[in-house]
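[scheduler] slot 2 assigned
[scheduler] job type: sequence-to-structure, two independent chains
[scheduler] chain ordering preserved from manifest
[runner] begin chain α
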Amino acid sequence: MHRIYRMTFASVYPLYVAKAERKGRTQAEVDEIIEWLTGFGPAALQQQLDAETTFEQFFDAARLNPNAGLITGVVCGVKVQEIEDPLMQKIRYLDKLVDELAKGKTMEKILRTA
């Protein structure tokens, strides 16, 4: 089992927000990405953060967006579309979306609506 599976989502969430904010993006945009990918609206996301769920628990409770398979590209030197472990792939999907946000992509492109 990968170490990240046991890490709390709450411990990594501020890092996602900080990465976005360093590039002029907002916490609201990070939250929108998380909602798109997982189905967690603001209250559900806060509940996950307060409960300090692990990444494994976080994604077990999530309803993965049916368009998540459209997320492609490289994170940590690995193509996300080729990751065989379903949980690791979901984690890397989120990493990739936050990377795209930090790189200045539009929300429409990040959320695969354009």
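[runner] end chain α
[runner] begin chain β
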Amino acid sequence: MVRILGIDPGSRVTGYGVVELDGGRARAVAWGCIAPPPGPFTGRLHAIFEGVRDVVSTHQPAEAAVEEVFVHRNVAAALKLGQARGAALCAATAAGLPVAEYAPGVVKQAVTGTGRASKAQVAYMVRALLAIREPLAADAADALAVALCHGQHRGRPR
């Protein structure tokens, strides 16, 4: 049995999801969003770091997985996302967790069967795979998808 922390980083909202894998079965342990308060960007980065650190402390995952940065058009937004991702990565590695990184298309492929799935499709499949009845915030669903993706790929050479 292994417990995996999935992280969907964002400078305004960082999603997290903790999944426990036992053989071929997956169970959602916890999920949610870290929403830093408005204010200086450095304060938001600190809140992301602290939030991930608290999730690790509370749920004791053995491994972590983070979604890679996707750059579409806005370079400034991509830089901020990269910094938020760095804060989350630092928190996970400071806790001694091995961290894997996955491209968004790989995560979508692992959960839905297609690398071009919509956010709604990802959320639907995450809820179905983990038997979650209540609606999920998009960032939390994405984080759970990252954890499930890592569960499929862990131990494989990349």
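[runner] end chain β
[qc] chain β: Helices lie at 41-59, 75-94, 104-112, 119-130, 138-153.
[scheduler] slot 2 released
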